[in-house]
Each structure stands twice: as structure tokens, then as C-alpha cells.
TrEMBL record:
Pfam families: Transglut_core
UniProt-recorded name of the protein: Transglutaminase family protein
Residue span, Transglutaminase-like domain: 34-138
SUPFAM superfamilies in the record: Cysteine proteinases
Coiled coil spans: none
Organism annotation: Aequorivita ciconiae
């Protein structure tokens, strides 16, 4: 997919967005130091950051947890969050290592049928000088989902089915969608959040 950038300035994809995307908080800094100690280049650091968000953070809808995490520090502390929360964490880790990262969204079926309705799904785009922009999805793998750090060919969590009304938005935003953050902050539990997520950009 040809990605469309909200901004042509890489600096806009390196900024903190308090309180959701911050990288000078204690746990984020500790994780960044750990990644840097194990990886010597940006490609490997980006891959490790992706795997941290994908594998070390449980997806609330999978575990049936009612906790809602929004801020990157809280996500890393509690080790859980939905797709949007994981994307906030990944962006914080990447930006904290001076690797440009943006926010992307897809419109997907909630439960696989048109009757179940639609909801936004959040993922990230990463910029590396040798490759340009590419998307990754830290949602978390399970039976039927195999998302990978792949530059040449996207390997995302969900195959988009336009014939069923799903949409793969190609824009790379500099900030998380305000409506998404609002519903995350205002929802009482994950069930409410699952049902009240925005459906469109």
C-alpha cells in the first residue's frame, strides 16, 4: 500500500504527545535502555520495540480483562492494552529512540459479520532511512492472526475485505486519533470500549 503522510516533516513523527505518548517516563526509559543494550542499529531496535508491544503486552479483548490502559507508561506497567494502547506504547518506544513513528487505522468488522458492526483498529507506521515508511501491527498474535515485523511485504493482523465494507486507511498520522483517545479515557470497562469505539476516521 502507498502510504500518505499527514506531515512531510520527520520531526513531527518524533514528538511526545502527553500524556498518551511519552518516552521520558521511568518504565519507557528502562525498556529503551534494554533495547539499546541488545540491538546496535535502528532496524533491530525497531523490531525489538515492535515485539515488545506485540508479545509482552496482553490484548484485553483476548484475556477478557476489564482494565483500560491508554498511556504508554501505564500499558508497560500493567502489561495489557487493546490495539490502540499497544500502538501508543510502540510509538513511544520508537520515538524515544529517535525512530520516526506514526499512527494508522483500519475499519474492520467487530465480530466478523456485517451484522456485528464496524470499529476502528489501530496500528503503526515506522520510518527507517534505508527502507522508507512501512506499517506494522502490534495487536498480538493468536490463532488466525500472525502479524510480523516485515518491510518488503506487510504482514498485519487483519486482511481487509472491502467487499464487506472494511477500509484500510493509508494515512500516517502524527498523533493518535483524538476520538479514539477520548473513548478510551471515558469508557468504564473494556466491554463498553469494545462497543463504543469509533467506526471511521
Amino acid at each position: 500500500m502507498k502510504l500518505q503522510l499527514e506531515s512531510n516533516q520527520l520531526e513531527d513523527y518524533l514528538q511526545e504527545i502527553p500524556p498518551v505518548v511519552q518516552f521520558y517516563t521511568p518504565l519507557i526509559q528502562k525498556k529503551i535502555s534494554e533495547i539499546k543494550s541488545r540491538a546496535s542499529n535502528d532496524h533491530d531496535r525497531a523490531k525489538m520495540a515492535f515485539e515488545t508491544a506485540r508479545d509482552e503486552i496482553a490484548h484485553n479483548f483476548d484475556t477478557k480483562s476489564d482494565n483500560i490502559t491508554v498511556n504508554a507508561e501505564d500499558v508497560l506497567n500493567r502489561k495489557e492494552g487493546i490495539c490502540f494502547a499497544k500502538s501508543h506504547l510502540l510509538a513511544s518506544l520508537l520515538r524515544g529512540m529517535e525512530i520516526p513513528a506514526g499512527f494508522c487505522y483500519q475499519k474492520v468488522l467487530k465480530k466478523g459479520t456485517v451484522e456485528s458492526g464496524y470499529a476502528l483498529h489501530g496500528l503503526n507506521a515506522i520510518y527507517l532511512p534505508e527502507t522508507g515508511w512501512f506499517r506494522v501491527d502490534p495487536r498480538g498474535n493468536k490463532l488466525g492472526i500472525d502479524s510480523q515485523f516485515s518491510i518488503e511485504e506487510e504482514k498485519l493482523a487483519y486482511p481487509i475485505r472491502p467487499e464487506l465494507g472494511e477500509i484500510d486507511y493509508n494515512i500516517v498520522l502524527t498523533k493518535p486519533l483524538a476520538t479514539v483517545v477520548h473513548f478510551m479515557q471515558e469508557s468504564r470497562n473494556c466491554e463498553q470500549l469494545f462497543n463504543s469505539r469509533p467506526t471511521d476516521l
